[in-house]
Amino acid sequence: MTDQSGKPKEVIFTKRGSEPQLSFQKYYGEENYVPVVKSNEKSTPYFVGRRWQDLWEAEGGVARYDDEVLALVVDSQERQVPLFFGPVAEQRIKFKSPEAASEHIKKKSIEFGASDVGITELIPTDLYQGCETRERYAIALALPMRYPEFKVTPSPAAGLEAVRSYHECGEVAIKLSQHIRSLGYTCEVDTPMGDGRFVQVPIAERAGLGALGRHGSLMHPTLGPNFRLIIVVTSIPMAVDSLREGGVAKLCDSCKACRRYCPADAIPDHRSPEAGKDSFGNDRYVVDTGKCYPYMKKDYSCGACVAACIYHRKQWARDYDGAPIMEYPDVPMGRRLHDEPLPPFDSVPEEEKHFYPRVNRGQPKKYWPSNMNLDGTLKKQTK
Ligand code: SF4
Ligand code: SF4
């Protein structure tokens, strides 16, 4: 591998020594990759994205794209990704100290649109198998999603908001990476949509952006779980951040809102000591992705666990028992959006499905999409 002047470049972290059991390429087929930026001797070789439609269909799912979603996905892969690359300024700006560099990068990240930013040093397990990087520091950027779009989930609005926030992450990362290169430092941006190379959650956890919740999503101390991440890695030596736990473990141990709400019964009752510790030394809650993912891929994604999570409303979590003061999402549980039969793994007893919170369940479906019947089927189009 060479740098931009053609000189050999050190690869700092690589997992090439251990070949993946089953690579995405072998699994999905080479043709399902979008060769927006092909590997060459001047860039770290990796595929930058795979068509979501191909991915979902390859797994037996149903890819549903509204025009707006499709436009964002295409724009991300065809316009944004090439902008993650560019020439590095020959003159390098020297920072007074790693602390000064860190402060500068954080200030610029917020200026470019991130809601929060954390910095950590990469460790080899931050990369997926078969991936590599030549950078040492990771900048984790957090951008919030709009909560109202998740008041009905799965729904076209929730699916669009998830993609919109990924796209927004891409915009912030473009600005930050261009700025880093203008300072005379190299950097790499993880793809917001498609195949990422970096395992985002542990990176962001170590960068002080929160702790893992029972639902398997990171909980930010003020954004809650309703946000998206993007990772930029760079050669700028920076001071790293400390962990921020924010009381997540204690809260999750006494709350099961997401577990009750999950339509796929994928969220566990208990922690799994055999699954290893999180960054704070706690046993992990292990979400059953074998149940979650098949549910998600049938429709417009899901995210009911994130929408239902009380952490981002923790100031009134005392009303868990039912005070009708807050809006919760409506999850079309027990039925599918498109007349498809229930998956067999939905084993939550019928009487428990709407247990939490009942407060918004008996009321008119204020946020029901206009193109959907109350039983979850799509309305017939009338011309
Ligand atoms: S995304 Fe949906 S199916 Fe998956 S764990 Fe969350 S609530 Fe359950
Ligand atoms: S809903 Fe409750 S248990 Fe689930 S992640 Fe949020 S705080 Fe933790």
Topology:
Layout: E1 13-14, H1 24-28, H2 52-58, H3 67-83, H4 98-111, E2 116-121, E3 132-133, E4 137-144, H5 156-182, E5 187-189, H6 200-206, E6 211-212, E7 218-219, E8 227-234, H7 248-254, H8 257-261, E9 272-277, E10 283-284, H9 289-296, H10 304-308
Antiparallel strand pairs: 1-3, 2-4, 4-8, 5-8, 6-7, 9-10
The structure holds iron/sulfur cluster (2 copies).
Residues 215, 262-264, 266-267, 287, 292, 295-296, 302-305 line the site of one iron/sulfur cluster.
Poorly predicted runs are 7-53, 58-63, 314-328, 332-377
Over all CA atoms, what is the radius of gyration? Answer: 22 Å
Largest sheet: 4 strands, antiparallel
User: Based on CA inertia axes, which overall geometry fits?
Assistant: globular
Integer average pLDDT: 70
Bound ligands, each once? iron/sulfur cluster
List the total number of helices: 10
> What is the ordering of alpha helices and beta strands?
EHHHHEEEHEHEEEHHEEHH
Strand content: 5-15%
- Judged by helices, strands and strand pairing, the structural class is alpha+beta
Q: Structurally, how many domains make up the residues?
A: 1
Residue share in helix? 25-40%
Number of strands: 10
> How would you write the strand order of the largest sheet?
2-4-8-5
The span between the termini is 59 Å
